[in-house]
Specification:
mainly beta, eight-stranded mixed β-sheet
Length: about 230
């Protein structure tokens, strides 16, 4: 069955980039499911099912390959939600991706031509990429938030139910991030704490906004060993 996809990422001066993303739908299924994944991760994705049942999950076929039995999560589903209420008539804010300015630090010589590149935000700001589900094939204003939120269009995926998934971006104020004071890592098969200490380590965090939309934040991390007392 044919897959229709949009690939996008954040870049700075054509010299640096952050992680790239893929949003897609599959035609011929009589469903209007929409999927989103961070391309370097790949094995975990956000599924926005037409039924209204949404989840972040690992690929079922990859669980045994990904984890040793002692590290395997109890379920392949990391989070399960119901589709939130529309923010306007026929318009649902499904997902946001936040990329701080400091996260755009992967050196590149040539940007992939198949990627829609979004300019990085200035220091102290973030790029917010938002995925909207629309009941109509096109918004009267062109795309969600064009005038009310000063958004720019990444692209649109037409869905089998006659609606569309519109992806837009804008520069916003940087938001404070809250993480647990300590995290016990769950390592993939063949990986260990030594791999986490390698240069270039990056993290992908996700959560839920009060409005029901899912938010991802991607960026570099520094790992420090806990000193024994």
């Amino acid at each position: 069955m044919p897959e229709y996809a949009l690939r996008f990422g954040i870049e700075k001066d054509q010299e640096f980039r952050a992680a790239t993303w893929k949003c897609w739908t599959i035609r011929g299924t009589q469903k209007s499911d929409v999927y989103l994944t961070c391309r370097p991760v790949g094995d975990i994705k956000l599924s926005l099912h037409d039924s209204g049942r949404w989840h972040v999950s690992f690929a079922a076929s990859r669980m045994r390959e990904l984890f040793e039995p002692e590290y395997a999560p109890s379920s392949r589903f990391s989070g399960v939600w119901e589709r939130p209420a529309p923010i306007a008539d026929g318009l649902t804010l499904a997902c946001r991706i936040h990329t701080p300015s400091f996260a755009v630090n992967i050196p590149v010589h040539t940007l992939e031509p198949s990627i829609t590149w979004v300019p990085a935000a200035p220091m102290g700001k973030i790029v917010e990429v938002a995925v909207f589900l629309c009941d109509q094939p096109h918004m009267p204003s062109g795309w969600p938030g064009r005038y009310s939120m000063n958004t720019n269009l990444v692209g649109t995926l037409q869905l089998e139910n006659g609606g569309c998934a519109s992806i837009v971006w804008s520069h916003c104020d940087e938001l404070p991030l809250e993480f647990p004071p300590e995290v016990v890592p769950r390592f993939a098969r063949g990986k260990s704490s030594e791999d986490a200490l390698l240069p270039g380590t990056r993290a992908l965090a996700w959560g839920e906004y009060p409005d029901g939309s899912i938010v991802f934040t991607e960026g570099p991390v520094r790992v420090q060993r806990k000193q024994a007392i």
